[in-house]
Amino acid sequence: MKTVVASTLVLLIAGAIAPAAYAQNDTQLTDQQLAHNVRVAEARSGVGMSHVFVFARSGQITLVGWVPALDHVSRAERSALSVPGVTSVDNRLSPDGGSLGSH
Question: What percentage of residues in the chain have a pLDDT greater than 90?
Fold first, then answer.
């Protein structure tokens, strides 16, 4: 009888943990896909992306890095906001001042 109760408890606990672990991985994939979609949208809008990092978490996008020109900063934010699933953008991009091309 004790074995049956213990086995039942183990199955119930495992059943409760597995969906939570799966949901976490599913969210991570969604965040990764959203970050990828933002990078694609920015590249298509002409933003220089070679020194830009895009982070996504539950629809919130953070842009960090350097872009080749000042107008790329606002262009990056606009293109990120145009991606379905993006709810906000924390734009921490800086214009590089021309040194990107000299490397």
Answer: 60
- Per the CB < 8 A criterion, the answer to whether 83 and 37 are in contact is yes
Counted residue by residue, the chain has a size of 103
Hey, which CATH number is domain 2-102, 3.30.300, 2.40.10, 2.60.120, 3.30.1460?
A: 3.30.300
Q: Which residue has the tokens 């074995």?
A: 3
Q: How far is CA 29 from CA 33, 35, 72, in A?
A: 6, 10, 28
Six-digit token string for 64:
């960090």
CA–CA separation, 71 and 78 (whole Å): 11
Residue of higher predicted confidence among 35 and 19: 35
- DSSP for residue 102: G
Cα four-point dihedral sign 80, 37, 55, 70: negative
Q: Where are the domains of the chain?
A: 2-102
pTM over 0.90: no
